Amino acid sequence: MTSVVERLRGPRPVFSVEFFPPRDAADEQRLWLAIRQLEGCEPAFVSVTYGAGGSSRDRTIRTTGRVVQETSLLPMAHLTAVNHSVAELRNVIGWYAAVGVHNVLAVRGDPPGDPNGEWVRHPKGLTYAEELVTLIRQLGDFCVGVAAFPYGHPRSTDLDADTENLVRKFRAGASFAIAQLFFEAEDFLRLRDRVAARGCDAPLLPGILPLTTVRTLHKTAELAGAPVPPSVASRLDRFADDPKAFRAAGIDVVTELSQRLIDEGVPGVHFYTFNMSKATTEVVARLGLLPARA
Ligand SMILES: Cc1cc2nc3c(=O)[nH]c(=O)nc-3n(C[C@H](O)[C@H](O)[C@H](O)COP(=O)(O)OP(=O)(O)OC[C@H]3O[C@@H](n4cnc5c(N)ncnc54)[C@H](O)[C@@H]3O)c2cc1C
């Protein structure tokens, strides 16, 4: 079976998409519609995030398993260390292997309820994503990805130390990283430079949010700790009361950002789709990343 990193090391830039596990039956229908619509666009892989509660976690495992069994897509499951003992983590990793999921994004997770609250390690759990990478690699033939932060992780005060911590995850066995969303290419490129300066050439994927509504722009920017720069605000804010014009301008901004990154040689672009496929498909088409027959 091919792995995510093999696809990122291919001859051409690729794209990938990220979904949430569905909350209920209606959500599941919407998600599967989006998955089916994107299937024909041949993304390099699709990932499913891992929530904080037990039922949401079960839905991630189930959804990722269905992607393996019912589609032609390559799935990547997310896994978080938060609120899990090592025994439970081993169990989930075993489940992923059993359903045929061999690509895993290893992240620490945030404290449930308040992402900025105090991080409390499970008494029998792990502290950093680096340890989760080590655990997953010990348990089987997995291709492991990790999270990266162009502006530094919100808990880090020192950008260099934060980059060093990212490089530690590669040394622990991660093969690639996906960056938290950002709005200016330079912010991502500086992160890539900092990683390269430490002698690390693992593929780094930019994470891109299709900007379709005023709410997506401000809410997600706040959640991700990614400031909306004046260059983007000045292009979009004027359409705050005109949803159609805002969407069109947002898609322009995201397409230009993605194109700049492709010109700078990124191996692919990872889209945070929020379980919608239309805006992502539009951007991907404009970037010329669709297969000829799609
Ligand atoms: C692409 C992507 C996907 C995500 N998917 C999910 C998801 O599915 N579910 C979810 O709940 N969350 C998800 N997150 C959010 C993520 O869990 C949080 O941002 C979390 O706060 C950080 O996770 P991490 O894996 O980067 O943690 P870590 O790498 O453990 O880093 C956490 C903090 O500790 C510091 N640090 C790391 N290692 C060390 C060390 N050895 N010594 C000292 N300090 C250290 C880092 O600099 C950072 O400040 C995702 C984030 C991204 C970017």
TrEMBL record:
GO cellular component, one term: cytosol
Keywords attached to this entry: FAD, Flavoprotein, Oxidoreductase
GO biological process, one term: methionine biosynthetic process
Alphabetized SUPFAM superfamilies for the sequence: FAD-linked oxidoreductase
Reactions catalysed according to its record: (6S)-5-methyl-5,6,7,8-tetrahydrofolate + NAD(+) = (6R)-5,10-methylene-5,6,7,8-tetrahydrofolate + NADH + H(+)
Molecular-function GO terms, alphabetical: FAD binding; methylenetetrahydrofolate reductase (NADH) activity
Pathway: One-carbon metabolism; tetrahydrofolate interconversion
Named cofactor requirement(s): FAD
Keyword Flavoprotein: yes
Annotated family: Belongs to the methylenetetrahydrofolate reductase family.
Name used for this protein in its record: Methylenetetrahydrofolate reductase
Organism the protein comes from: Kutzneria buriramensis
Organism lineage: Bacteria, Bacillati, Actinomycetota, Actinomycetes, Pseudonocardiales
